[in-house]
Amino acid sequence: MNLYLISVLLFALSANLDNFTVAITFGMRKIKMNYFINFLIAVITGAGTFFSMWIGKMIGRFFPVSVSNTLGSVILILIGLWFLKDFFKKPKEPQQSRQDEKVNLNTMLKDPEKADMDSSGTIDVRESAILALALTINNFGMGVGASISGLNICATTVFTFLISMVSITLGYRVGKGFIPESLCRFVPLISGGIVIALGIFEMLI
Predict the structure, then answer these.
(1) pLDDT the model gives residue 94
(2) C-alpha span between 109 and 91 (Å, rounded)
(3) Residue 166 and residue 172: Cα distance in Å, rounded?
(4) CB–CB of 178/30 below 8 Å?
(5) Residue 42: exposed, middle, or buried by beta-carbon count in 10 A (0-12, 13-18, 19+)?
(6) 40 has pLDDT over 70
(7) How many CA atoms lie within 13 Å of 9's alpha carbon, on the beta-carbon side?
(8) 56 FRET partner, CA 20 to 30 A, in 21, 32, 95, 153?
(9) What is the pLDDT of residue 163?
(10) pTM of the predicted model, to two decimals?
(11) Cα 95 from chain centroid?
(12) pLDDT recorded at residue 183
């Protein structure tokens, strides 16, 4: 496996950890989602990756290659540190306030069960599109930084799409296997570590 492929895989894995966690929650709550919904989420997140990386490429044109690589790597490291901050310093929310909280893109990521807005026990096309948008926005800055640092847009988009399909399927099955929900809180820690490793890796190669 060459260094280029390692960078792409690190990005795709980090970008899909939220997808994995959301799918675990759906599996634990027995909220149904079929393969078309999985495919739709993967398409939207893949398109979001492409768009964010395209913006990063446009930004990178204003800088020399060496500067772009360093700038993109620094952005990735800062985003990774932000994820770690989110893990270590995020205040605990009272359960009652979360129940009364209005459903929006941010609350869907905090509590994926809210993605089932009509409480039907099934994620439909509209709900999955909104959820995928939330996941895409959450990874937008990472896509910009990765593109500036030199990752190939097409390869990264394809890997993000494929790993999204796998992570959602695997996460759903893991969730149905009664995995403790408390483990999901470690996702920002793992994701932050991977993004920081990607930033450092891109800075060194």
Answers:
(1) 46
(2) 15
(3) 10
(4) no
(5) buried
(6) yes
(7) 6
(8) 21
(9) 93
(10) 0.76
(11) 25
(12) 63
